[in-house]
Amino acid sequence: MPTKTHVTTTINGEQIDFLCEPRQSLLECLRDIIGLTGSKEGCNDGNCGACTVVFDGRIVTACLVLGVEAQGKEITTIEGIASPAGLHPVQQAFLENAALQCGICTPGFIIASKALLDHNPNPTEHDIRFWLANNLCRCTGYDKIILAVQDAAAKMQETKV
Amino acid sequence: MKWIDYANPTSLGDALGLLAEHKGRARALAGGTDILVKLRAGEEADILVDVKDLPELNELSYSSSDGLTLGAAVPCYRIYADENVKKNYPAIIDCANLIGGTQIQGRASFGGNLCNSTPSADSIPGMIALGATCNIAGPNGTRQVAAEDFCLGPSRNVLAPDELLVSIQYPAPAPNSGANYIRFIPRNEMDIAVVGAGVSIELDNGTFKSARVSLAAVAPTPLYVKAAGDALVGSPVNDESVQAAANAARDAAKPITDMRGTIEYRKHLCEVLTRRALNTAIERAKEGR
Fold this sequence. Notes:
- The structure holds two protein chains of two kinds.
- Chain A is an alpha+beta fold.
- Chain A has two domains: 5-80, Beta-grasp domain (Ubiquitin-like (UB roll), Roll), CATH 3.10.20.30; 89-160, [2Fe-2S]-binding domain (DNA polymerase, domain 1).
- Chain A has helices spanning 26-34, 89-96, 106-119, 125-131, 143-160; strands at 5-11, 14-20, 52-55, 58-61, 74-76.
- In chain A, a hairpin with a 2-residue loop joins strand 1 (5-11) and strand 2.
- Chain A is globular.
- The N and C termini of chain A lie far apart (59 Å).
- Chain B is α+β, with helices and mostly antiparallel strands.
- Chain B folds into three domains: 5-49; 65-170, Uridine Diphospho-n-acetylenolpyruvylglucosamine Reductase, domain 3 (2-Layer Sandwich); 177-287, CO dehydrogenase flavoprotein, C-terminal domain (Enolase-like, domain 1).
- Chain B contains eleven helices and 14 strands.
């Protein structure tokens, strides 16, 4: 019987060791082995973005990364976005702007939106829509999500000043 | 997905050894955005050979004599962030920005796009138009194949089971040259080309000195349309000559009717996209970018 692989990685700043089969996606490892169920499985083929995580500084869909590829990498999931002091401004803005209904897409949208604002603190609506094109939402019609990202951008600019 | 082994060799020799050992049952893993989907859909292999730790496949370098060496595993985000690519190859940026969305561009490589060998691949017409060469390594050394000769049919290419695509070599841009890749999709992002057109031209005193045109999604492989380039060479830079090349592209296309478009619609798009891409390439040549 083939053996499982031992993977050592950093998730949300904490070193994690886990055993997985080479065929298991990072998403399966996060959810089913490590117990971080915030990242959601939608399409499992890279289209919907519900499983978006930060993988060595870039956002990726965790369904298209193998768990074994996480060896030595740094990963941020939705569980690592809020701080002990409270929600991240992007999370707060999604709440206040009602940018979600069923919530399945929300962790992916929040990870991707935060990555956008880290990279471009003052995006145009066009920038936001193109950056978030890899995240699908079947409830909101997107407008409230765009408003939430703009709101978060404005609040994050204010707190910086 | 059935059980599959995984290896991440750190030398090209070790990677080639694994491919040879598994005799056609090994698959290369770069960004994984195509291969993992295919394996889940039932495609079978014994081992995935991760090529992201091979230095040769991560190279991204430019020199005015040799042009651009693009390692086969370099993801899109590194391509469009690269200063040399931005300065010298706007058509490569066109392609890199169109492949998937932000998350896919964080992983997907041009090498993977080429080896996946779909007729609609967005990076391949740019390679063909720019006259790129594919550097391939195998048990008996290396060989070079012109980009237009790499694909043999949908999901089929010239790579033997024990060979690996190492890099794509783009020649340095000639003075007064310009290039562009555009595609048509029914939405704004995240879709598969109904038709794509890649062009590269070189101007000399108001005439076309050289020109290459390539089309996506209108034949079993990305298509190099020699007749469209030939229609331009020696002709004055004006609407008539651009139109003649666009007509040649339309006439060379051999599309099929499918869910994305009919034969007639795709032929029409070949003409429109080739014309528009040529006009952008001419502007870029005149602006010196």
